[in-house]
Amino acid sequence: MKKTIILTILLMVFCYTFGQTLVTDLKTPMNSPVPHTYELGDGMTSTDKANLSDSVAIRYPDATEVNPPSATYHYNCHSFAWYRSEGGNRNVWIGWTGGGTAEDVYWDDGSFIKVSSLSDATKISYDNDGTGDHSAIKLSGTNCRSKWGVWPLVDHAVGYGPDIYNMSIREYYAPFKVNSPQLVCYGSTATFTTPDYVDCTFNWTYDTNLLDYVSGQGTKTFIVEPKYSYSQGQAWVKLELTIDLDPDVTREITKEVWVGTPDHDNIMITGDDWVVPTNTIFMATASEDMYIDYYQWDLPYGFTITQGQGTNTIRFNAPLVLAPNITDYNCIIPAGLLAGIILCTRHLSKMH
């Protein structure tokens, strides 16, 4: 009897009539308008939402609802995957009309690019050319999150869900990005890499004044190295990616990498100059620097670092009894890869 009641309630919800307003100003990251998008009146009572939550729990016990009750007409799977998960906060239903092609604009204009496997993906499109027409975002491993029509927002395995979505038929997409290092020293190489985009042409260029080519032109992985042992400065590497669409779309991105030993002239220590013979906590902070891997703090005998060793900020206790003369405290900064060591010193004085 319980299953029959739930099915009846679902049918009542799907047949509900509500207001709808066409949205014409929703855009992709590449500024293309998203068609067939509407704002819909919710039309669901709290009882409707609770019943749909119960239905998901009964029919799909291996799926987990997110922030129940989450059933709503306000947005659908495409809206969640391509718009709301990217920071959008409007209640819109993408593809309310149009035969299930509205979300295609997100990859047709190059905002997201097809990749070869789930491991590189952030978005999943299910059975886009068939009856499934569903979208999800990848979480970790083989898990994803999607909104099941007016049903709840759920976390589930990539192939687990309603049969209507044909979840065995999948395409994977990722945004345009290049992973890159911040620093490369002489004797090492710098690797620039993208997700495994398919149907794309890779054209890499680079700063020939500071860098030499190693390998990877025309592929997703491009490797360069410092040109000379004395090369130093901010260099650049640029990717022009042509996506095989109709028409082709070319996107480009430039990444910067520091070549050689970083310039740490701006490193200094700020903090307390005076200490008193108690166990009061004092703080000292060294300047932040993007190329620093680790901060090694050394304090006078009897002082104890209570928090922050290895970071640019520490807290430390002064001993109950202070020596007549307080010496310096230092921050020794190994500055990234083979870049050397920087020593900063600040003097501590005893407060009488």
**What does the main sheet amount to?**
7 strands, antiparallel
Work out the radius of gyration: 29 Å
Indicate the proportion of strand residues.
Answer: 35-45%
Q: What is the terminal-to-terminal distance?
A: 84 Å
Number of strands: 26
Low-confidence stretches: 1-17, 335-340
Helical stretch tally: 4
Judged by helices, strands and strand pairing, the structural class is mainly beta
Bin the helical content: 10-25%
Reading the helices and strands in chain order gives HEEHEHEHEEEEEEEEEEEEEEEEEEEEEE
Spatial strand arrangement across the major sheet: 3-9-8-7-6-10-5
Tell me the count of domains: 3
Overall mean confidence score, pLDDT: 85
The rough form would be described as flat
